[in-house]
Specification:
By secondary structure, the chain is α+β, with helices and mostly antiparallel strands. It is 33% helix and 22% strand. It has one domain: Ribosomal Protein S5, domain 2, CATH 3.30.230.10. It has 3 helices and 4 strands. The chain has a 4-stranded mixed beta sheet, with helices on one face. The two termini are 22 Å apart.
């Protein structure tokens, strides 16, 4: 898990997600929205029940992404809200492949 102050609150979804700039990869939709000046970059990882039926798989996929975020956090851009929407099951992918899809959008 990432620290609580780096997670996006659910109240920000309705405000920030519709106006966020969205970028698509093979397995993800990454949306970047501006945060207040001087704030840290905050994250949310989302998976729908339509994509993964079982909660165990949804949580496993979220943990994979959150571990990558925690590992690379100091290198990320500052002052953004980052929404990562998982579009396909990533539990069978290697970590380096997932990093190659996500990290280029988030690094300074």
């Amino acid at each position: 898990m990432i620290p609580k102050h780096l997670r996006i609150k659910s109240s920000f979804f309705k405000e920030k997600y519709p106006q966020a700039k969205k970028k698509y990869t093979r397995h993800f939709r990454i949306a970047l929205a501006d945060a207040p000046i001087g704030s840290d970059t905050c994250f949310a990882v989302v998976t729908s029940k339509k994509i993964l039926k079982k909660a165990v798989l949804r949580h496993k996929n979220k943990r994979i992404i959150l571990n990558i975020i925690r590992q690379y956090y100091p290198q990320f851009i500052v002052g953004k809200y980052v929404f990562i929407h998982i579009l396909k099951d990533i539990s069978l992918l290697e970590k380096k492949d997932i990093e190659a899809e996500i990290i280029p959008f988030l690094v300074k």
